[in-house]
Amino acid sequence: MKHPEAYKGLEVVVLGLARSGVQVALALHQAGATVIVNDKKSRDESPEASELEALGISVLCGGHPDDLIHPGVALLVKNPGIPYTVPPVQKAIELGIEIVTEVEVAYHLCKAPMIGITGSNGKTTTTTWVGKILEASGLHPIVAGNIGTPLTEAATHAEDKDWMVVELSSFQLKGTSDFRPRVACLLNVAETHLDYHGNLEDYVSSKAKLFANQQDTDTAILNWDDPVCRELIPYIKAGILPFSSSEILLEGLYIDPPYIDGDAEGITRTIIYKEQSGQIHPIVTIGEIALPGRFNVENALAAAAISIAVGVSPEQLAEPLRAFRGVEHRLEYVEEKQEITYYNNSKATNSKATIMALDALHAPVVLIAGGLDRGSDYMELLSVFEGKVKAVVAIGETKEKIGQVAALAGLTDIVLVDTEEDAASVLRKALQEATVLASPGDIVLLSPACASWDMFSSYEERGRIFKEAVHTL
């Protein structure tokens, strides 16, 4: 994509309203483009339309007109969640019209250097954590992207002195061409979102676009323990700063002593930064980090590596690493009642995220799981069910599949909750069933291993209903 000013007098289609679509339309309109915004929602469901029309921007609601995409369209900016299979996108592909997402537009508008953070799990926690570290270190972070402020809106207000800290999904990255973050971090890769990408290869290649335009003056942060991350190394031009929780590295961020399967609990481990020169900087012990679980240790390693890459000294890292208390819906402590502890992990929209949460907990777990069926058999949950879970309460489209895995794991306390009622009632009933199955000292964990869209508008809605239900038990 060219700079938005290059589209002055040219027709640009923005597909999908929502907050990011509005901001993209405004930015391109201000650059002089002839902007047409289209959304399949009805006009009554699109309150943003009036704001745009008042500025002279055309808004078409209620479907995709057959003549929306034509040879005269210079650019299609697509909401990341809209699949490439919808007719307007297919038509643009046929006509050779460039298709981008908001990230590409924002990149061209942004004066501040960008930090791009992606991964199958841990993006929001790491992005938020980096923002807190940079702020505590006297820098000027702007946290945006897949969380918080739409990236285009943030980019138009950013200044040279700022650092744009951006959470990025594979959906967003797939629609980039020139995007070049100064620092890019890939946390991990799990088999997820295949209903959108079609196959794992497309998913990984979309994630890898984070590094595509980096140069040797940039930095790529990689999880050394993830084989997919390591496979990308030959294709990365930037300097690589790795992190690992299972290996002492020649350079980078690691844990000493490393995690080894079967280790006894109670071992004192320290986050270490080793410079290329070999100089070692102990930063903080794992026990000082408030967030539970090895996966949060890995998020801490990534956040520390990113911060070092932008100029934060190792000595400045300890306090913000200790002080961070996490993000809503990510293994979030809710309440303890009758000696039963409740955690909200609604952001666990794939099996790996649920496995990571279960591995972080050290008490018997009654698990509430289930949601949108994307075709997985959930057999990857089998071993962790055998070792960590005492009972399962399953909801949503996948309740039978998850119940079958629980049965194969030898569990006898398995409840499948009928989903004919409204979603909130189903979740409250699941919580009640889980509480009955729990004993003092146990944990009731909402960690669905599935997306929420079969029952809820978002994982946030699912998590908030769960928390409200816990508070009113």
Automatic annotation (TrEMBL):
The pathway that the record names for this protein is: Cell wall biogenesis; peptidoglycan biosynthesis
EC number(s) per entry: 6.3.2.9
Molecular functions (GO terms): UDP-N-acetylmuramoylalanine-D-glutamate ligase activity
Keyword annotations from UniProtKB, A to Z: ATP-binding, Cell cycle, Cell division, Cell shape, Cell wall biogenesis/degradation, Cytoplasm, Ligase, Nucleotide-binding, Peptidoglycan synthesis
Statement: the UniProt record of this protein carries the keyword Nucleotide-binding: yes
Specify the superkingdom: Bacteria
| Compartments, record wording | Cytoplasm
- Give the family this protein belongs to, as stated in its UniProt record: Belongs to the MurCDEF family.
What the entry lists under PANTHER family is as follows:
UDP-N-ACETYLMURAMOYLALANINE--D-GLUTAMATE LIGASE
Reported function: Cell wall formation. Catalyzes the addition of glutamate to the nucleotide precursor UDP-N-acetylmuramoyl-L-alanine (UMA).
Q: What is this protein called?
A: UDP-N-acetylmuramoylalanine--D-glutamate ligase
The species is Paenibacillus shirakamiensis
Q: Supply the source organism's classification.
A: Bacteria, Bacillati, Bacillota, Bacilli, Bacillales
